[in-house]
């Protein structure tokens, strides 16, 4: 029998296996990516390096926000061997039950992953993953532990960076940072669990610039999860890059001084450099030390107390609080009336107190004196002339047209709307127009007499303090302003283009002279309401305000800029429930201006009087 | 002198060449995978590559000796050699066990695995027996003796236990099949017991072995891939169940086979081929579908046991660890590989793939050289196997032909199982990849296998028996 043909059976066996294997290898190695992904999962670790956030400087180059190194005590359970719990507890200064409780907490708490799609929480704890056993320890705290960590396999120290503030002020400007939420991670792929994100203030607005660029290192790991070598010699690694340095318009000394002066009071101070729109100081009282909200541990401890405080230290008063402006509003009424031509600077009006009440003072024979005495009847008549200009024979129609025109002016002063700027938490304030009153009284059912309280900055009108300060800058500049903003420069980039655009008001420059003269008299002439802000060395222009706040005590307001020629600072001081504007707000403004212009304060008696004054 | 010259001119240089090439590739892979930066010298004998180099030289030296000795002794001394290897297999059973098996003979790290050498003894004796049989081959006695020659070492090896080598021993069945020794006499005996039936031969009985293996192979592959779902990146949403993949592969192979036969066969062959292929395809599909159906209809715990045996459990970090890591290493190679000495999954240092310098050495090779490398590797192996079969078929001596077939089949088995387990087509069975894997015993035994064949072949003009 011949069996030679059987060799073909054997050969076809071999060929078949060879072909199948070649195809399979082609499929596995070239077509299908899943095995390559699996290999990555098994053998590579992606180590993300988060750079420290940008450093922040004030206008004089003082570093005000920097980063401090903290240490996490990390653990990898898979590497822990024969842990001597007693010795370990002793090392970290805990007792044994607390150590065990912390282990449980990590396994059950930090390892839990919430799946949004299924709505279920599942344990994501992995023994080979590192978790922070103790977070955010200072160098002193870790120093004793670190030297003994070798004895405890599976534990190691890891460096993290957190914010540090040179001055205990400016908390409401800087904001704070805290760990990202799951929704934020879902929204922006930059973030991973445990990353920080800016929560308020500049930290929030400039998050993208401040956070810098993360670096990634790919590391080949062994089956024991030890680092072996950089993957492909670091070919795919990227270097972490810190964000550019920030320079703010803030003068931190002035800011700190303002917070000091406002201690024990509720209220705020906003100071703006009129020639640039840069915010020099933004004090919100009561204030708090920004260092209170650094790191998970401190936030957990301090945040609830701050949030529950009845005086609302977390509430950004200068930006969000909306107050009736009071008498400082009279400056704006004057400007509109002058531009409209319904009065001249020589316009006089007797203080007859028939329509509105007033305090006792000589009759104002011209506009500057009207401002100096802050005469309510005077501005009642001025505003009436603006609203009831006689555009229509019908009184109601006339009032409607007049008010809308008036509101347009107010809008051009930056009121009744939010500034489009790098400040978070702004509100718009309120400038009522015809539509607004129609809602209350009905169409053509109201006239000036109905709404007369707006003429002295009471009633429906509401301004935020930052808007008031901007009004000061606008008057100082004789009719234009830059949008108030915090940031002077980012890295090498100078002022951002959006802050270099002049906003012109509807009032011509020459109309400002009379108003400025009035503000000069307020401070610098006897009989003026703002004498407390006077200085021997330069001329301060100002305007007091006393905002009725029935049934509580009046708010004390003072708006000022100085010096009169080439103003360097425009400031508004707003003290809640303090009483007459000239008594409290004016001296505070005076001290602040002196501090800014001269660097020191000469009148320590006045300073002491302010410091000793407590509203609550 | 004259004889030496004859050897040099008669030696099969292509086979020797591919064999040496594979050895060098293996050495390079061992160097890469076990690379120790503190001992970068390949001649550092404290390292695995240094040792492998020593084994390589020892093997080549032994090979040279084999080439110098007249090949006639292998036929003459086949029985003593076989018995000697059997004695070694018995002695090894009384040795201390290492990694759960009593497979090592020797002191400390210097040891040999008798099972590797037993294959040579078995091959020689089987060849001698088959070549000595003058009687009609389809004889119950012949079948039983031939099977006994294989079975005795198989049992001894199973006692170690060494499942890998045990499986490899079934390759001798193919050799017997090629020589006409099949189970047909057994089958006939059984069938002819039925009254009224008097067969001279049965198709199933005479082709029992390849049929059995085709069926086993088909069943195994079906089971291994039936749970997989094949997806394509460029065709999102398209999911092909594993069983469909198997059927598609069968279709492709059938069409391939048809074209090959059309190309080389005669007209009559073509007609027959079509019938054979259609029948073969239908049968294969049926077996595959049947296996799949049978497996799916098993009770859960039965399924789990089979999956556990095949290393199929969905447990990439537990029972399925080795296979999962090995496949990840191979699959991550891509088209061109990660580059020499750049294996990150299967290097000894990272140790994700265990035994990556011995049984899983194909992983680092595939990872570093990619599909380009693995394709070349499969090609070289195919070339080597065909060359050995070609050599076998040109012998006038039956002894040499049988021996050559044993070489071909053992190499094929090692190749198929070893590479198969790295690509998910074979269960994880620890057997070395010939000429590649680190280890003295396998290196020496496979070299001896090869050199004996080369020597026998060089004397083909005057070895007639």
Describe this structure in words.
The complex is a heterodimer of chains A (616) and B (465). Chain A is α+β, with helices and mostly antiparallel strands and 616 residues long. Chain A has 3 domains: 41-62 and 166-248, Penicillin-binding protein 2a (Domain 2), CATH 3.90.1310.10; 69-110 and 129-160; 252-286 and 297-304 and 316-487 and 496-612, Beta-lactamase, CATH 3.40.710. Chain A is built from 21 helices and 20 strands. In chain A, the strands form 6 sheets. In chain A, strands 2, 3, 6, 7, 12 and 16 form a 6-stranded mixed β-sheet that branches. In chain A, strands 14-13-20-19-18 form a 5-stranded antiparallel β-sheet, with helices on both faces. In chain A, strand 19 and strand 20 (569-575) form a beta hairpin. In chain A, helix 14 runs parallel beside helix 19. The longest helix of chain A has 26 residues, at 6-31. The mean pLDDT of chain A is 87. With 465 residues, chain B is mostly helical. Chain B has 2 domains: 2-181 and 384-458, no CATH class; 201-311, no CATH class. In chain B, the strands form 2 sheets. In chain B, strands 1-2 form a two-stranded antiparallel ribbon. In chain B, strands 3-4 form a two-stranded antiparallel sheet. In chain B, helix 7 (140-159) runs antiparallel to helix 8. Chain B is globular. The model of chain B has no long low-confidence stretch (mean pLDDT 83). Chains A and B meet through helix 1 and helix 2 of A and helix 9, helix 12, helix 13, helix 16 and helix 17 of B.
Strand order in the largest sheet of chain B? 1-2
Report the CATH architecture of the largest domain in chain A: 3-Layer(aba) Sandwich
* Rg on CA atoms of chain A, Å: 34 Å
Inertia-based shape of chain B? globular
Poorly predicted runs of chain A are none
Look at the structure and give the mean pLDDT of chain A: 87
In brief:
The complex is a heterodimer of chains A (616) and B (465). Chain A is α+β, with helices and mostly antiparallel strands. Chain A contains 21 helices and 20 strands.
């Amino acid at each position: 029998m011949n069996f030679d043909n059987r060799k073909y059976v054997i050969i076809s066996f071999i060929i078949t296996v060879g072909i199948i294997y070649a195809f399979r290898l082609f499929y596995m190695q070239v077509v299908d990516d899943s095995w390559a992904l699996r290999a990555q999962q098994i053998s590579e670790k992606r180590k993300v390096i988060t750079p420290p956030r940008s450093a922040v400087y004030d206008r004089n180059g003082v570093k005000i926000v920097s980063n401090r190194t903290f240490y996490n005590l990390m653990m990898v359970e898979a590497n822990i061997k024969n842990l001597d719990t007693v010795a370990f507890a002793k090392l970290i200064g805990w007792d044994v039950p607390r150590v065990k409780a912390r282990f449980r907490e990590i396994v059950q708490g930090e390892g839990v992953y919430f799946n949004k799609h299924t709505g279920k929480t599942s344990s994501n704890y992995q023994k080979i993953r590192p978790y922070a056993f103790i977070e955010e320890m200072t160098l002193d705290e870790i120093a004793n532990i670190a030297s003994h960590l070798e004895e405890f396999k599976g534990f190691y120290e890891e460096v993290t960076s957190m914010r540090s503030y040179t001055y205990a002020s400016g908390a409401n400007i800087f904001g704070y940072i805290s760990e990202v939420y799951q929704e934020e991670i879902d929204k922006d792929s930059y973030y991973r669990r445990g990353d920080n994100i800016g929560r308020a203030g500049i930290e929030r607005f400039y998050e993208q610039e401040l956070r810098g660029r993360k670096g990634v290192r790919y590391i080949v790991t062994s089956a024991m999860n030890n680092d072996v070598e950089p993957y492909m010699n670091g070919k795919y690694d990227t270097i972490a890059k810190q964000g550019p340095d920030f320079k703010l318009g803030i003068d931190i000394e002035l800011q700190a001084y303002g917070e000091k002066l406002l201690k024990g009071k509720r209220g705020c101070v906003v100071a703006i450099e009129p020639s640039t729109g840069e915010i020099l100081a933004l004090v919100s009282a009561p204030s708090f030390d920004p260092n209170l909200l650094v790191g998970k541990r401190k936030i957990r401890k301090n945040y609830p107390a701050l949030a529950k405080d009845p005086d609302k230290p977390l509430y950004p008063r200068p930006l969000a609080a909306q107050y009736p402006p009071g008498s400082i509003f009279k400056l704006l009424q004057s400007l509109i009336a002058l531009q409209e031509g319904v009065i001249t600077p020589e316009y006089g009006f007797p203080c007859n107190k028939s329509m509105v009440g007033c305090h006792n003072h000589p009759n104002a024979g011209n506009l500057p004196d009207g401002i100096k005495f802050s005469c309510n009847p005077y501005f009642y008549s001025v505003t009436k002339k603006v609203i009831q200009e006689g555009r229509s024979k019908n009184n109601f129609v006339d009032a409607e047209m007049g008010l809308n025109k008036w509101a347009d002016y107010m809008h051009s002063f930056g009121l009744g709307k939010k500034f489009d700027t790098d400040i978070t938490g702004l509100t718009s304030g309120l400038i009522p127009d015809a539509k607004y009153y129609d809602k209350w009284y009905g169409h053509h059912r109201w006239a000036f007499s109905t709404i007369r309280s707006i003429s002295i900055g009471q009633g429906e009108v509401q301004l935020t303090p930052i808007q008031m300060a901007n009004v000061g800058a606008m008057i100082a500049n004789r009719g234009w302003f830059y949008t108030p903003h915090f940031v002077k420069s980012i890295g090498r980039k100078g002022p951002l283009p959006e802050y270099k655009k002049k906003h012109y008001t509807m009032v011509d420059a020459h109309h400002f002279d009379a108003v400025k003269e009035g503000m000069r008299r307020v401070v610098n002439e006897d009989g003026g309401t703002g004498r407390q802000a006077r200085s021997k060395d330069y001329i301060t222009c100002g305007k007091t305000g006393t905002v009725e706040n029935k049934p509580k005590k009046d708010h004390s307001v003072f708006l000022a800029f100085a010096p009169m020629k080439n103003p360097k600072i425009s400031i508004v001081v707003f003290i809640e429930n303090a009483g007459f504007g000239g008594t409290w707000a004016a001296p505070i403004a005076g001290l602040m201006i002196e501090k800014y212009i001269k660097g020191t304060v000469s009148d320590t008696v006045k300073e002491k009087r302010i410091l000793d004054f407590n509203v609550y | 002198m004259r004889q030496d010259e004859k050897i040099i001119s008669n030696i099969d240089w292509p086979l020797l060449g591919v064999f040496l090439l594979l050895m060098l590739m293996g050495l390079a892979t061992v160097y890469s995978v076990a690379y120790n930066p503190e001992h970068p010298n390949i001649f550092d004998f404290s390292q695995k590559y240094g040792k492998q180099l020593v084994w390589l030289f020892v093997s080549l030296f032994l090979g040279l000796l084999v080439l110098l000795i007249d090949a006639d002794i292998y036929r003459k001394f086949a029985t003593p050699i076989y018995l000697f290897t059997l004695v070694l297999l018995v002695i090894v059973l009384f040795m201390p066990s290492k990694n759960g098996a009593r497979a090592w003979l020797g002191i400390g790290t210097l040891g040999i695995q008798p099972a590797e050498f037993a294959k040579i003894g078995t091959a020689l004796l089987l060849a001698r027996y088959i070549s000595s049989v003058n009687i009609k081959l389809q004889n119950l006695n012949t079948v039983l003796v031939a099977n006994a020659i294989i079975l005795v070492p198989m049992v001894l090896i199973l006692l170690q236990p060494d499942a890998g080598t045990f499986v490899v021993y079934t390759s001798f069945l193919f050799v017997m099949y090629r020589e006409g020794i099949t189970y047909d006499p057994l089958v006939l005996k059984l069938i002819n017991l039925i009254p009224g039936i008097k067969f001279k031969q049965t198709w199933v009985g005479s082709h029992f072995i390849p049929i059995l293996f085709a069926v086993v192979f088909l069943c195994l592959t079906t089971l291994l891939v039936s749970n997989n779902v094949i997806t394509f990146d460029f065709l999102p949403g398209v999911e092909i169940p594993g069983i469909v993949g198997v059927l598609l592969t069968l279709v492709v192979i059938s069409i391939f086979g048809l074209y090959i036969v059309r190309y080389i066969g005669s007209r009559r062959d073509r007609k027959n081929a079509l019938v054979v292929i259609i029948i073969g395809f239908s049968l294969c599909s049926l077996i595959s579908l049947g296996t799949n159906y049978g497996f799916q209809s098993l009770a859960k715990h039965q399924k789990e046991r089979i999956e556990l045996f095949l290393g199929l459990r969905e447990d990439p970090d537990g029972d399925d660890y080795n296979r999962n890591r090995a496949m990840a290493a191979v699959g991550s190679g891509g088209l061109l590989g990660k580059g020499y000495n750049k294996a990150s999954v299967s290097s000894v240092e990272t140790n994700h793939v265990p035994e990556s310098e011995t049984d899983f050495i194909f992983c680092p090779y595939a990872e570093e050289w990619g599909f380009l490398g693995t394709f070349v590797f499969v090609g070289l192996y195919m070339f080597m196997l065909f060359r050995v079969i070609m050599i076998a078929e040109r012998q006038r001596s039956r002894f040499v032909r049988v021996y050559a077939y044993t070489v071909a089949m053992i190499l094929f088995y090692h190749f198929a199982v070893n590479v198969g387990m790295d690509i998910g087509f074979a269960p994880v069975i620890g057997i070395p990849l010939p000429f590649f894997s680190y280890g003295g015993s396998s290196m020496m035994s496979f070299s001896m296998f090869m050199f004996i064949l080369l020597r026998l072949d060089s004397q083909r003009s005057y070895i007639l028996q």
